[in-house]
Structures are given as C-alpha cells and as structure tokens.
Amino acid sequence: MASDERFSLELNEQFAERRLGAVRNPVVEGPVSDWATDFSHVEPEWANDMYEIQAGLRTRCPIARTERFGGAWLPLRYDDIAAIAHDTERFTSRTVVMGNFRPPLDAAPMGVTPPISSDPPFHHPARKLLLPPFTKSEILKLEPATRAYCHELIDAFDGRDTVDAAVEYAQHIPMRVIGDMLGFPPEDADEFRVFVENALEGINLPPEQRIANMGQLYEYLVAQVHDHIENPRDDLTSYLLNCELEGEKLNAFHVTGTMALLLIAGIDTTWSAIGASLWHLAKTPKDLERIVTDRSLLPTATEEFLRAYAPVTMARLVRDDMEWNGVDMKAEDWILLSFPAANRDPDQFERADEVVIDREVNRHAAFGLGIHRCLGSHLARMELRVALEVWLERIPAFSLADPAAVVWSKGQVRGPRTIPMRIG
Amino acid sequence: MKVSIDMSRCQGHGRCYDLAPDLFDEDDEGYGQVRGGGEVPAGSEPNAQLAEANCPEHAITIEA
To answer: Is it the case that residue A405 has pLDDT exceeding 80?
Structure first.
C-alpha cells in the first residue's frame, strides 16, 4: 500500500492541538446596541440589510468598532479598505475568518489556509504554485462540463412552476466544479454544504462545537489525501501532494489547509454570486427584459452584480499597536475588510447604491485587492457567466415566488440561501 | 497610442485581457501582459481606455 509519512495517524491529534492552542474570546450574541461601537456581522439585522447599516456607518464613523470577537474594526470607505488590503506589513492575514478564535502567532507566516492566510515572504511562492491551474485559459477548459451540468440541473425542474434557485441551482454549480477539480466524489456535495456553513456561519457556536466542526472537515480532507496517495490522479489534490516549494514537498498543514481553502472558498462565494444575480433579475423585471432582449449586456451586468452584491468580506489582524487613520488600533484587533462596503462607496462609484447593468467603468473590489486577489476569480467569473447564460436561455421569464421568504447568509460571505422562484 | 502595465501593481485580475483581448494577454500565471510591445493599432483606442479604466489595481498606463 502506498504511504506518505507526512500523513501519519497522529495527524488528527496534531490538528486538534493546533486548534486548541488558539486564543479564544467569549461568545457575545444578541442585539447590537449601536452599530458604530458594537457591530456584529452575524446578527440577523446584518444578514437582512448589511448595505443600509454600512451606508449609515460610512457617514457617521467611518471606521466602526466592536468589542465582540475580542475587538474589531470595520472600515467603510473604499480608500481605507484598499489601503489595508495593500498593507501586508501592518495587517496580517494569519487567519481571514473573524470570530472568537485567533490562531497561535506561530501559525504565521503560512497561516491556517495558505496562501490566503499567508504573509510575505511565504505568500508569494505558495501562491505561485496555484496560479497556473487557475488562469483564465485553464479555467475555460472546464466551461463545457460546467455548461452541461447547469443544463442537467434545469432539466430536473421539468414540469414544476416553482423551484428554489439557491438550493436547486446556484449552490450545486460551484460544488460540482471545485469538487471535480480537487478530485472529491460528487456524491459528497451534501457534506461540503455542512463544511461551508460550519466554517463561515458557525463562528459564534460554543468553542467545543466549533473545534469539533473543524475536526470534521480535516478528517474528511485527510481521508481524501489518503485516497489520493493510494490512487494518484490528475487533480488538484494529487498536485498538492506532489508539488514542491523550494525543493521540499509541502507539509501536512499546508496541503490540507490549501485543500480546505479551495473547497470552502470555491463554493460559498460563487454560490452566493449566482444566487444574488438571479435574485436581482427576478425582482427587477426591467433589467431582466433588457438582458433577455440584448444578451450583449451580460458582461457588464455580471460585473455590476459582482460590484453591488459582492459576496466576500475578508478579515485581517492588526500586527502591532498603532494609530491608523485616526483610530487607536491594538495588536491582534480584527479588521473586518468589507469589499461589499468598498463597492458601494459613493466617493468611488457614481450611483453606488443602484444596480446599473450597463456600467462601463467598474473598478470594483469584489475579488479583493493586492497580493491576495481571489485566486479563483477566473473560475468564479466563468461559473457565474455560464450559470446565468444557461438559466436565461432555458428560463427567460421568472420572478420571486415569495420575496419575503428569501433568506440571506450571515457572516463574511453574503448570498441568498433560499430563493423560491416562479419559472415559466 | 501605447499601453503598458506596471507589473509591481498587476495582481492578475485579468480585466485588461477580458475587455481588450486585442491589446492584452495573460501570462502563464494569469498576470496581464501587453501584446505587440503595447502599440495600440488604429481603432483600438476605446479598448485601451476601457482596460485602463477598469483595472482594479490602477496598473495600466496609456501614453498618447
């Protein structure tokens, strides 16, 4: 039997130790007293209308504060968000999910899910390994299979007049595509959904539960690693197992951390973008009609959906005590880096709160800015474009069956998790 | 007209080669590169401006 000493039986224990070594803060839940001093991205008001809260804060603060999560800042202006995204000296990416855990300091410079969690100088070579399989031309090779899968999902709607566009369409597309890229069995998709929800929405669960949830994900990944050691194949998991960084194979934390990143970040983000775009078209008949009549609007419309409904908010940790743009930041304070807020800053975008589907100049930050630009941005754009093209071709007339029943996710990735849709 | 990319700013967003594939291309890692030394053929000026105006990293420069 093939073996690989990096992935010994003691590995799960090592993972658990690493997680238990994290700094933990008490879980604070419940209504926000003042969004400027007590914000929380996991309360229902935020999930329901993050944009209104952020617009209010932008004129009031414009860097909000909370004592929850052990202390965090929320900048609202594009310029501040861009400056932090570009400043890897004063802000570390050791972890990019803000919650009640801070990984041990020695998790840097690799961080928990490299390369998104890596700081220079570790970051660049680790990212470089992953860039070739994620270029636009490599990704375009996956387009025919993605298109066929979208058709298959719509075939299953046959004979029904109401479907759930988030549950029955949007979520499946990125799960299938990234699952295939990693070489994971397609029938495991239900588990992927649980991993995604645990990782991103479960940040305020009791610590024991959170640790157990992370353990579940890593056990799954290690099982996939062992399967790939025994049956190597042409996919990203085998690639990660075999590739070298400065002459050495990647250690177990690096391999599984990157697998976790690709799986989680590959799913919920694009699922959210597809869902939010369909939701917008369903509730805005004039935009739907324009696009159906003139498909050449789709590229600018897609970019506009990415701007207006950018799914991803990142996080950073402050490296050392400092005064930054008028606020007194302490080492280990979180920064909630809201690209959605940047994308709706009226100083950066005209008609920032409107969805303008033929917007020609659209320097949005949906995929981040600086060295951590979303590795999968070309993949996400392909999936979003194909998902919309196929849906519009097959279902040119649709509307929200029950607008009040649409549920948005909380936490750092925003998207509709259920969209009852009337079709045909 | 000539276009150029500041490689210290480019992060591989790919907006330039999406919007102006006649003027820009991707390299093996997805970073942008100019075609034909950056010379903008007659008629491609609007594409050059579109790419410049949409680069999230402000990495593209146009010289008249």
So the answer is: yes
pLDDT in tens, A178-218: 999 999 999 999 999 999 988 888 888 887 888 888 889 99
Q: pLDDT tens across A346-365, in order?
A: 999 999 999 999 999 999 99
The whole-number pLDDT of residue A21 equals: 65
Residue B20 belongs to a domain with what CATH number?
3.30.70.20
Residue of A78, A358, A361, A385 for testing the chain B interface, max B β-carbons within 10 Å:
A361
Q: What pLDDT does A205 receive?
A: 85
Tell me if the bond preceding A120 is cis, omega within 30° of 0: no
Structural domain range at position B29: 2-63
pLDDT in tens, A79-132: 999 999 999 999 999 999 999 888 888 888 999 899 999 999 999 999 999 999
**Tell me, what amino acid is at A217?**
L
CA-nearest of A359, A366, A394, A392 to A380 is A366
Residue A242 phi/psi, 5-degree rounding, is -100, -20
Please tell me the total count of domains within chain B: 1
Euclidean distance between CA atoms A218 and A41, whole angstroms: 26
- Give the closest residue to A316 by CA, choosing from A305, A326, A304, A324: A324
User: Token pair for residue B20?
Assistant: 């102006």
C-alpha to C-alpha distances, A39 to A93, A179, A197, A322, nearest whole angstrom:
21, 35, 21, 21
Partner-chain contact A361 B17, CB within 8 Å: no
Distances (CA, A) of B31 to A140, A273, A367, A378, A394: 16, 24, 15, 12, 35
Mind listing the domains of chain A with CATH numbers?
5-423 (1.10.630.10)
Nearest one of B34, B31, B14 to B22, comparing CA atoms: B34
Nearest to B14 among A364, A370, A378 (CB): A378
For residue B30, name the pLDDT band (cuts at 50, 70, 90). Answer: very high
Find the CB nearest B29 among A135, A360, A381: A135
Give me the residue label for tokens 């990647």.
A250
Taking contacts as CB-CB distances below 8 angstroms, the residues of chain A near B13 are 367, 373, 377
The mean pLDDT of chain A is 94
